[in-house]
Records
---
Amino acid sequence: MRILVVEDSQVVSRVMRHLLTQELCCEVDVASDMASAKELLAHNEYFVAITDLNLPDAQEGEIVKFVLEKQIPCIVLTGSWDAEQRARLLQLGIVDYVFKENRFSYEYTAKLVKRLRRNQSVKVLVADDSVVSRKFIRSLLEQHLFQVIEADDGISALETLNDNPDITLLITDYNMPRLDGFGLIIKVRERLGREELAIIGLSSDSDESLSARFIKNGANDFLQKPFVHEEFHCRVLTTLDSLDMVTKLWEQANLDYLTNVFNRRYFFNFYQEKLTEVAQKQGSLSLALLDIDFFKKVNDTYGHDVGDEVLIEFASRLKQSFSQHFTVARIGGEEFVVGFKGLHIEKAYALIDRFRMQLEITPIETSKGALTITVSTGVTEFGHDETVDELLKRADTGLYEAKSAGRNLVSIAES
Ligand SMILES: Nc1nc2c(ncn2[C@@H]2O[C@H](COP(=O)(O)OP(=O)(O)OP(=O)(O)O)[C@@H](O)[C@H]2O)c(=O)[nH]1
């Protein structure tokens, strides 16, 4: 990623270069006047340009128009606070107008660029029956590089959310035909928690109770129409930042810190729900308990760090092989489980045995060289009314048999 800083003050450009490389690990080019900015823009692709308005060879902010014409997002970083100019430039489509006040202004600018990078992969659904309002919100969101999808009422918003599980933010109007904003939020929240989808409610209605009602029904925030451009962006950014924080907390609680697969806590808490679902629907579910063979020897011979490298690669291979359809978790030091929801034991056995054979012939690259690792596994199938604990205990008897029979084996524990 490459960023252009157009700034005649060496102190400012040095600070910005330092903050940007620290925050984003990116390439930063600096131009101290309009002519050198033009030269750089002619030869390079930029993710964003951060520009001063008053340059030695262009003192009226001409650089902004030049950058925007090249379809490059532009952040104005200026020492002159001019409200009229600010409004005009925001109207023109700049990302933000930042006043060089103190070091926080520079930190804010670097963080803004980081958010722009994140926004590129954030999908936002805008539900509003007014085409004008929808297009306006789309243009604001696109200035900040979000991916935008539109829906013209509550029902089509619900359908779009079903078809696009990767939508992160829903911005919904209150008054809409077929299903209004409240109805939409209530239906959405039956299925998606606050850690999965953020919602901002909108309304031009003068009813003062609307904002509280939106939030009580499950919205994260509310905006009264008409709103100013900057307030809209602040609300969106704050909502997404808190969603990121909730996601981070959820990951810390449920993912294994070393291997990034689900942890023991997740498996015990959430897998019970899957078992109940399978029991109710009389479906099938098999479980594999895997334990790396002679793992202590890896630690003793090559050190704990190499042991960690092996665990990380082993988990990554498990994830690659199974996590698209099944649940992979690390439940102990070198013990992992794969929950095969929907599979009978014969199929689960075949998949795990294929994984075992592949592992045996594909050494793991570590900092101390390539190591050949094998794994022993116990596989079992869910009976009727069992807990995760009971299922695991039975898989463990299979694992014990596999170890006793010489390791590098898969053994079935019948239910
Ligand atoms: N590097 C590393 N080692 C771990 C971690 N957690 C547990 N271990 C080690 O895993 C090893 C497990 O060893 P054992 O239970 O004796 O089993 P084993 O050597 O794999 O032998 P078998 O299971 O009988 O084949 C111990 O040396 C633990 O210290 C971890 O997070 N990182």
---
Amino acid sequence: MSLPLADRTEVLRWLRRTGAAHRREFTLVMLLFGLTTVVGLIGPQLLGRLVDSVSAGTAAWRVDALAGGFLAVLVVHALLARAARLRAAVFGESVLAEVREDVVARALRLPLGTVEDAGTGDLLSRSTADVDRLDFTVREAAPELTAAVLTIALTVVAMLLTSPLLACGMLVAVPLLVAVSRWYFPRAATTISRMLRDWAGVQSSIHETVRGARTIDSLRLTERRRAHNDEVLERAIDGERRHRTLLSVFLPTLELAYVLPIAAILLIGGWSYQAGWAELGTVTTVVLYAATLSAPLAELFAWLEEMQLGHAALTRILGVPDSPPDRAPQDPAPRGAGHDLVLRDVRFSYRAGREVLHGIDLRVPAGERLVIVGPSGAGKSTIGRLIAGVSVPDSGSVAFGDVEITAMPTARTRREVVLLTQEHHVFTASLRDNLSLPEAREWRDAELLDALGTVGAADWAARLPDGLDTIIGSGGHPVPAAVAQQLALARVVLADPHTLVLDEATSLLDGDSSRELERSLSTLLAGRTVIAIAHRLHTARTADRVAVVDGGRVVELGAHRDLLAADGSYAALHRAAFGE
Ligand SMILES: Nc1ncnc2c1ncn2[C@@H]1O[C@H](COP(=O)(O)OP(=O)(O)OP(=O)(O)O)[C@@H](O)[C@H]1O
């Protein structure tokens, strides 16, 4: 299920809001473009006068003065055009900085479940390729388009003021322009939005290939993966081809529409001159105007095309949901009703019609250590994801006290519960940034060093060349696997949730890891509610209670000893594991 696209009202609302927030810069840019265009219109008038003066046999000084004036106009025009574009670029950049920050903030607020459903590639292409596309639109297309529209409008007015009769020659282009626009733009809109979606597909596919490279290699899926990449690429190229085909009709027709009026004006001009209705200078001026119109008209259509691309990109960027579509956070009264974890009749399916949890009821008092065991595919990890608020139940509720986890804003969720898996990602960033992830707040160095100390990574950190500011991760200072685990634990220390869900991370508890890590983990667990998803049964012995999950249901619940004595599924699992 891909992320939604913004609709017309959302795009308009964004444009209005952005326009209002930057009213002064926007007005200044518009004024500069208007002024540039008006100055640009003086040139042809001067040349027209020059032609008239020469044909009337005027003095040399007058010709010199007109030529000098023409030069001065050119210089002023160039200076104004530069100022207008510079202001437009500054304006565009500040708008874009906001768009970038906004889309990244929204993406980070999305729950993992939504991101996984949509595919990370979709989100990635929206926050990179689409933002870049919009960047080009705002920085280049919007100002150029504005300049082109103003130039066309004012040039037409100037032509009409100079000679309405000659200006009529422009009309020959109108039917052609209307027809080709009505043919091209609706087709281009669909082609372009499909093309952007297909390119996002390419990005997703390549991203997944790179991420899963080892799996692909070990399962000898290289050929199949290559074929899949070829297929998505082919689809994107096909869209690109369709778009080019549309352009190959559109652009030559436009060219024709620009030249036809010049021919028409020359014809009308020659005829009017002979009839004594128009001076030679007037004909020159209007032809020059018509000729100068072809450039802004060409720009207008080229940039309209670019604006369409930008619009499609904007609908994708604004489509990244502000609040997760699957939940409605409302920041309930903080921690009013305690930290007891309560699951009531929780049902969940990854795909419609294929329920994997069939009504889970569970109550875990604050501070208890519960281990969930069960056969592979029973739904243990899924329960963990629901408790951590990563996924949302189809029905029923997961709550701390009487506050549902999905009703809490994401930042608040992290203070309640953290899911710790074996995937310990180290970001290519400073050690400080790697640790500061849990909350968007400034941590004091002492707090960060304390957290490192708690998990036993203080010595490693002390040996770093730039301390907390050392860039670690891929391309930076290397991080041994054990330290990566410790950093993940240090993040949890900083997030300080009252409940921890350990999925696979429990292999740490199984005694595989170094004593130091084990010690770090037990310091971390002390005083918190712990839900450990055990893939091996060792862990269960030290738990307060054990829940046995089978086929998406809790089939047994109780202390290790009691369950062994009851001689049910747990006892059977135990016998299978230890042969007792
Ligand atoms: N992302 C997913 N999309 C679709 N189905 C999924 C997804 N993740 C898990 N499932 C299915 O949901 C069911 C429960 O899976 P879950 O991972 O919760 O089981 P588990 O008890 O943790 O198993 P294991 O011990 O093998 O990790 C399985 O049938 C699994 O195939």
---
Amino acid sequence: MVYNARWGILATGGIAKTFVKDLLRDPKARDTNDVTHSVTAVASSSSKTRAEEFISDINIPGNPTTYGSYDELVADPNIDIIYIATPHSHHYQNARLALESGKNVLCEKSFTVNAAQTKILVELAKQKKLFLMEAVWTRYFPLSVQVRELIQKGEIGEVLRVTADNSIGQGGWDQSHRMLNLDLAGGALLDLGIYSLTWAFQTLYHTLPLSQRKPPSSILSTMVKTASTGADEDTTMLITFPTTTPSNNLQRTSHAVAMTAFPVDSNPDKQNSARPAIRIQGTKGEIQVDGPAYRPERYRVISKTREGEPVKAVREVENVFPSNGHGMYWEADEAARCVRDGKLESEGMTWEESVVIMEVMDEVRRQHDLVYPEKIESTDYPIKL
Ligand SMILES: NC(=O)C1=CN([C@@H]2O[C@H](COP(=O)(O)OP(=O)(O)OC[C@H]3O[C@@H](n4cnc5c(N)ncnc54)[C@H](OP(=O)(O)O)[C@@H]3O)[C@@H](O)[C@H]2O)C=CC1
Ligand SMILES: O=C1OC[C@@H](O)[C@H](O)[C@H]1O
């Protein structure tokens, strides 16, 4: 039996459009034969007309219902799961609205503005027996799954160090733009740094059995804020994970350097996407992942060669994007399967891991006194933002 997930789309901005286009691509093209997707409703906080335009722009079939408010959307009985695509500042209020109304939720990254908000959403989902997932789409790429499996199989030995960079070399946004606007929880850390942290965590944390996953023992960071709004524009984190599997009785820790920036670029000339944005370094070799970190295109496995040994061939694997998609359909398939199976959370991005990553970002912000407006940081509900 094929399960069809009926989606409600909350907000009609840039990523909502990209996500819905991927939802509409033929699942069979990516060998997904057990779930399909349909969009049954779209809501815009701007107007019902905006929702109608969104539908006609993308040519969404099936005549979805349109709403001029999110309140109406969450009351629609013909929705299995709501995709939240508002700015970071609004995720807590929007996700809470959906959960309080009994709806399953896939919410864009960063999940919320702080860990306290994420914890409340998780408790609510648990209490109401609803599915809730932070939409960290990169984790569901076949490439990410393969890299995690290679690490777990010991292909590069004990992984001791990861460097992950998600820097875009862009700027010049207006102060009100969501990338810079503190009222929308803008800045590099929450928007882009989350992907560098994703790589640190999915390699050094997620690859361990659940019982062995331990939050970082130390977090050091540096941050540069933009003069215009005070949002962070260049943030680097050094994250140390406690040892869980001592090798040869050596109490070694692993660590990650997670970087993100607006003014510098992980791939400056854009001519060659074969720049490793991520390096995963182990005792027996290294896996390099070519950026951008949020939409990686390939990885290569380089085995360590000892003096006198023949050099082993470098294995390079492309991440293929079936039906010329963006790659958001893999997370959508995962969400649909979880809802179908009555799972409340996804194994690829557990609630616990989302909370730990939010706690890392809280700590980095604390170290640099980066605070968003009180309304945005608040756990009160409902608040009109
Ligand atoms: N996974 C990925 O690759 C990407 C994820 N993102 C994430 O998606 C989210 C949205 O980003 P993006 O689509 O680029 O943002 P946009 O600014 O393009 O869209 C945001 C939408 O949110 C709604 N919204 C509600 N309240 C506000 C408000 N006060 N100010 C602005 N918008 C508001 C609007 O829709 P409406 O008027 O219809 O209600 C708006 O169109 C962010 O969390 C971001 O981190 C972004 C880009 C890529
Ligand atoms: O999630 C994202 O990935 C792609 C970036 O361009 C975007 O700013 C960010 O929100």
